[in-house]
């Protein structure tokens, strides 16, 4: 087999530079199926997809000027799951594989290094893996859907492109932003992540969101901002109230009509300034929705892409050896990127599988690790009629989760809570 | 089962509400029926040692040392300033690179290693320049600093009760060490005895006694805890 290599895409360039001994940027997709997982068949399915998804079977390597992804001949070996999701990925591990295939009882999970792909791209691989697994296990034919590709179809060039370079403009957006309120707490021991999953009925959630005239993402963001404002009010003096902002990764595929399975997502920050007065949930929904509408246009996003792509084109930066680049990028990231939001809310949206798969699959969840300098992270996915709101944290205290889910209950949305601790 | 406080429904494998930590009471039958946990108990194994970085830096250090030595021999036919440079690289190596080889290094051991390296460096300078200040000044000074640093580490890492006593004791000791340092300074450089150290002793003494008092008097201790917790 021809061993290929890939440049890191624009969004991924930063990740190897800013990862450290305790933090790697990763996310996880997991599915609960209706029977105990057979690891041998799962391994077979993983092997079968190698040719179809060449950009996933890679190891992270360091060149002199940049990191790159080296296509691997060996496929990653399936492993038994760990006590908490998204355990640390070390350089040593990433060198041989940028994803982990895990199973535990009747659950299959794949953890991706964010340098390889984003949630949407990862989901295409993940659903195709599930489909292949079911095909082998039950000897059935599974039709195609936007999330499931046939494993013996040829790879198209569009899938492997760095779409950022294609959809940029000449007017980079300014990166200046005010800082945001940060939650604090006692760090978990051993980099443990505590995951709380809130399960709600999608129809109910939609009904309440419609009452506020907004989408589910906007509604959940507004409730989260309301929770954060409440916590900040309790903890800080009125004159010390900071902005409360949340990062929303925007999937750019639909906006620009791209088919890439590599990263094509950029974050926007939305939020309010609590010093300006009290906000009702209605106010928050209106404000957040209009911020979404204003930011998420092809023109504005192209400018944001430009501010990410342009530094790469700088000859001086290009020709700086990697260790120095790491130092500089790490410092810049540390100063700029981080404190401008309180947490992420990442919505994968509704996962629609081919109807042949539905009887076997009970739930599909999406989990992301907390960002380097945030302590929480929230990810949302929907499957069948359930929406799974996963809040992952690296501290002991569960205050944000308590306030957030209690609010949903108060708004008339019944919530079922699960956790890996307690 | 619902949490009475938060109003959320809890999954069957939970024994406390993950949101508010309220305990959930099950009867015997329910305990039997408790579902399996969502995640296994296996913790990931991980090592903190950064072998690859350590080996690169080791190679770089060796390369630097050999280049310096070769250069010096070519230019002067003897070591000259090369010795200092080589020793500096050595000290740098002990302080920054050596810890990378180990998963977890006890801070006391690393302090001991660092101080030994610095002492050797100073000894070399002393011999090279023909001074006689090493044994009577530099070495004692180094040992005094080393002891104080180790005591401070012990205070921060291992002492949990009677911290104020211990901290007060250390600060008084630092004050007394300054006198000792000045004594060695007097021996070596023939300066006047006890000029500056008296101020240090008085300051450290007052502060140390204050801390010891704080250890004894509870209200004062509480007040300090409230104001200066880290
Ligand atoms: Zn509760």
Detailed description of the structure:
The complex is a heterodimer of chains A (422) and B (230). Chain A is α+β, with helices and mostly antiparallel strands. Chain A has helices spanning 14-18, 39-48, 91-96, 119-138, 157-160, 163-166, 202-211, 216-235, 252-256, 281-295, 298-313, 315-318, 322-336, 399-410; strands at 5-7, 26-33, 58-62, 67-71, 79-80, 99-104, 107-113, 194-201, 244-251, 265-272, 343-351, 361-368, 376-383, 386-393, 416-419. Chain A folds into two domains: 5-166, 2-Layer Sandwich (Chloramphenicol Acetyltransferase), CATH 3.30.559.10; 189-419, Nonribosomal peptide synthetase, condensation domain (Chloramphenicol Acetyltransferase, 2-Layer Sandwich). The mean pLDDT of chain A is 89. The termini of chain A are far apart. Chain A has a seven-stranded mixed β-sheet. In chain A, β5 (79-80), α3 and β6 (99-104) form a beta-alpha-beta unit. Chain A contains 14 helices and 15 strands. Chain A is globular, with a radius of gyration of 21 Å. With 230 residues, chain B is an all-alpha fold. Chain B has a domain at 1-38. The model of chain B has no long low-confidence stretch (mean pLDDT 83). The A-B interface holds A 21, 80-85, 87-88, 90-91, 104-105, 190, 194, 196, 198, 398, 401-402, 405-406, 409-410, 414-422 and B 3, 6-11, 13-21, 36-44, 46-48, 50, 52. Bound molecules: zinc ion. Zinc ion binds at residues 3, 5-6, 17, 19-20, 22 of chain B.
